[in-house]
Every structure is written in C-alpha cells, then in structure tokens.
Design brief:
Distance between the termini: 56 Å
Strand order of the largest sheet: 1-2-4-3
Number of helices: 5
Shape: globular
Radius of gyration: 21 Å
Structural class: alpha+beta
C-alpha cells in the first residue's frame, strides 16, 4: 500500500473544500433569488417567473418596465396597479416596497428620497404591463437613480 505524502493530501482536501464551498454558495444564491422572487410576488401580486422586469438607465434618469411574458389580463392589470402605486410612493420619497422585496435599503434611494422634489416619475401602460419613467436634471439625483437601477438589475439577474 502506498502512502500519499501529507502535502498532497492537504492540497486534495483543500480543493475538495473549495468545491464544496462553491456548491453551498451557489445553492445559497439560488435560495436567496427564490426568496426575492417570492417577496416580489407578494409585493406586486404577479408570479415573478411569469413576468419580466427591465431596469434601464437613460441619459436623464431611468425606466422601470414590468410586463407579463404571456397575455394574462389579470396579471397585466395587477402590474399596472402596482406600478401606479410605485410611482406615487417614489414621488413621496417612499422606497419601502423595493426595500421589502430586496430585504435591504436599495442603493441610491436615500438621495432619491431626499431629492424627491428634483425627480419626476411618470407611469404609462405597455402592451402587457406598464412602466415608470424616472427623470431628473440634478446630477446627484441622476447618479442615485443609476445606482438604484444597477442594484435592481443585479438582484433581478438582468443583463445590463
């Protein structure tokens, strides 16, 4: 019987530990995403896997778009009602809904709340949902909107 040198055995155990840790992190990330999706369903009233979010950064602000993937009239109506509420909440400086969905204070919302008089929010219908357009001419607010959109894209696993 051949005995494996101690250093080689330790390297093997270390490699195995790293692989196991990566697997646990991946499972944790999947669980965290599933929890985010479930909280989103509670907040918005629509199945997050049957709808699509888009968080676009634009030269003067951004755009939050949410649409059903299929032509589901009840889901479309729910999205539109939700986004109208979001428009009014954000105008008031209230970002508690995204904070609940993401379980953290969202980047940029502190500035967006403080500078609410410098930011405009406009809701409009889309074919299978709706959108909230966010605009400002204030440099600090614009940077805050961009941070908010980037955090949303990352958490919702949307490609930039």
């Amino acid at each position: 019987m051949q005995i494996i040198p101690t250093k080689l055995a330790l390297v093997g155990l270390l490699a195995l530990s790293v692989l196991c840790a990566k697997q646990l992190i991946a499972q944790s990330n999947d669980s965290a995403f599933a929890a985010l999706q479930e909280r989103g369903k509670m907040a918005m009233g629509v199945d997050q896997y049957k709808s699509a979010h888009h968080f676009d950064v634009l030269p003067d602000g951004g755009r939050i778009a949410l649409q059903m993937k299929d032509n589901d009239s009840l889901g479309i109506a729910q999205i539109r009602a939700h986004l109208k509420l979001i428009q009014h909440a954000f105008e008031a400086g209230d970002f508690s809904t995204p904070e609940f969905v993401h379980m953290r204070a969202m980047p940029g919302t502190d500035v967006m709340s403080r500078n609410k008089a410098l930011i405009r929010y406009a809701y409009s219908d889309l074919s299978r949902g709706g959108q909230v357009r966010i605009t400002t001419h204030d440099r600090e607010s614009l940077e805050a909107i961009r941070r908010f959109m980037a955090a949303q894209r990352g958490d919702h696993r949307e490609d930039p």
